Amino acid sequence: MRICCGALVAAVVAGVAAATGCDVSTAPRSQPVTVAVTADTIVAGLNIYGAVTWLQFTLPVEIHNGGTVAMSLDYCSVSVDEPSGTDWTKVWAPICAVEGTTANTVAPGETKVITWQVEAAVGGPGGPKWGSPTLSGTHRFSLATAAFGTLASNTFTISLLTTSTAAVFEHPVRFPRRQ
Fold first, then answer.
1. Which member of 9, 29, 35, 68 has the greatest number of CB atoms within 10 A?
2. Does 15 reside within a domain?
3. What kind and span of H or E run contains 42?
4. SS3 for 127-176, per residue?
5. In the 8-state DSSP scheme, what is residue 179?
């Protein structure tokens, strides 16, 4: 009976470990290059500039180059995807001018965290457009490469910052004194 209980405890602990998943530092690296968003939840805001309403957020992305040659990363080769049934659909990709892009380089054996600024029009004539009627929810980051094809990150959740949530951060609620 004691062996059974010990096995049960080990199974429960293993189940909890499996349910919580791997964090970025302990995730298995079976591919030469891995891509991971380093936050489970990304807070996004809506801002109005003129006639355009923009969805804006920052993605902290860890890229590990386990290959033998340096890897060049271009802002124009990224996208944000959302689940669509059993597949993924691109909901955002930047609009890029060839002369306006700057590439980052990740050396062999190096791990680098790069922050990607995402700005998408959700109302009005601006672009790039957010390609989904849903702003919050589960998403992933994708990086297109010549050598490894498209690399997808772990999933993350976009949480839309609402006006009432923002007010809590800016000004604490103060009630007038009773007299």
1. 35
2. no
3. strand 41-49
4. CCECCCCCCCEEEEEEEEECCCEEEEEEEEEEEECCHHHHHHHHCCCCCC
5. -
Q: What is the CATH number of the domain that holds 119?
A: 2.60.40.10
Mean of the pLDDT values across residues 125-134?
Answer: 94
Answer for the pair 109, 65: CB distance below 8 angstroms, yes or no: yes
Position 34 in a domain:
yes
Q: Which one, of 130, 151, 135, lies nearest residue 32 by Cα?
A: 151
The 10s digit of each residue's pLDDT in 48-91 is: 999 999 999 999 999 999 989 888 888 889 999 999 999 999 99
Across 75-99, b (16+ Cβ under 10 Å) vs e yields: eebbbbbbeeeeebeebbbbeeeee
**Is 13 contained in some domain?**
no
User: What distance in Å separates the CA atoms of residue 63 and residue 46, rounded to the nearest whole number?
Assistant: 28
pLDDT band at residue 11 under the 50/70/90 scheme:
very low
83 falls within a domain = yes
What is the value of pTM for the model shown?
0.72
109 φψ region: left (φ > 0), alpha (ψ -120 to 50), beta (else)? left
The 10 Å Cβ neighbour count of residue 35 is 23
Number of domains in the chain: 1
Task: Provide the pLDDT for residue 30.
Answer: 54
Q: How does strand 52-65 pair with strand 33-37? A: antiparallel
